[in-house]
Amino acid sequence: MHKIVLASNNAGKVKEFNRLLEPLGWIVIPQGELGVSEAEEPHGTFIENALAKARHAALATGLPALADDSGICVHALGGKPGVLSARFAGEPKSDAGNNQKLIAELAGQPDRRAYYYAALVLVRHADDPQPLIADGICAGEIVDEPRGDGGFGYDPHFWLPAFGKTVAEISTEDKSAISHRGKAIRALVAKLQEAGL
Ligand SMILES: O=c1nc[nH]c2c1ncn2[C@H]1C[C@H](O)[C@@H](COP(=O)(O)OP(=O)(O)OP(=O)(O)O)O1
Ligand SMILES: [Mg+2]
């Protein structure tokens, strides 16, 4: 059960999941290493897309699969880019383009509140009737000037008032402790333990 395929092609996520799960004795294999293609993400909710990604990787590999669908939800933009965060600035996916578009859309906007959200789904096999589900939220504010070179995605623009830093400036340990993904993975592991899996 603890040898799983990670249903993600995002190198930043892969690093974070390795850090979070390897200390627990999990063997986490990124789907790219097993030749799994990128799944479609056709749905309007994070949870549905995470389930689709997990089933896709489990079907292709025959292994249990863990997927993460995540994004940034900005209050002044009515929750956008949300589920479309990875492709906010169009195809091909580009962190730089997405960040530029985010800052442009918030020009002159005093309300800077935003949160990261991650939905995780673990399936034991492709048609698992009881996927395990967990999620997590990390609140912050969008800043125009990028700061720091850690993390990935929107992190250089995601300000954490409690740290006086962006997510790209805090340590990986601190990011694991406070991030949407860190919270979600701890909740998922707790559920697995409760279920005796
Ligand atoms: O901790 C984070 N720090 C910064 N940015 C983040 C974070 N977590 C999610 N994000 C952003 C990146 C991407 O723009 C979108 C996820 O999109 P999402 O479709 O879930 O991932 P993806 O396409 O990059 O890889 P994959 O689907 O193969 O897992 O939200
Ligand atoms: Mg994606």
TrEMBL record:
For this chain, one GO molecular function annotation is: metal ion binding
Details of cofactor binding: Binds 1 Mg(2+) ion per subunit.
One BP annotation, GO? purine nucleoside triphosphate catabolic process
UniProt catalytic activity: ITP + H2O = IMP + diphosphate + H(+); XTP + H2O = XMP + diphosphate + H(+); dITP + H2O = dIMP + diphosphate + H(+)
User: Which residues are recorded as binding substrate?
Assistant: S8, N9, N10, A11, G12, K13, S70, F152, G153, Y154, D155, K175, H180, R181
- Give a short account of what the protein does: Pyrophosphatase that catalyzes the hydrolysis of nucleoside triphosphates to their monophosphate derivatives, with a high preference for the non-canonical purine nucleotides XTP (xanthosine triphosphate), dITP (deoxyinosine triphosphate) and ITP. Seems to function as a house-cleaning enzyme that removes non-canonical purine nucleotides from the nucleotide pool, thus preventing their incorporation into DNA/RNA and avoiding chromosomal lesions.
Which family is this sequence assigned to?
A: Belongs to the HAM1 NTPase family.
Tell me, how does this one assemble? Homodimer.
Q: Which HAMAP family has this protein been placed in? A: Non_canon_purine_NTPase (MF_01405)
**What is this protein identified as?**
dITP/XTP pyrophosphatase
What organism is recorded for this protein? Answer: Chitinilyticum piscinae
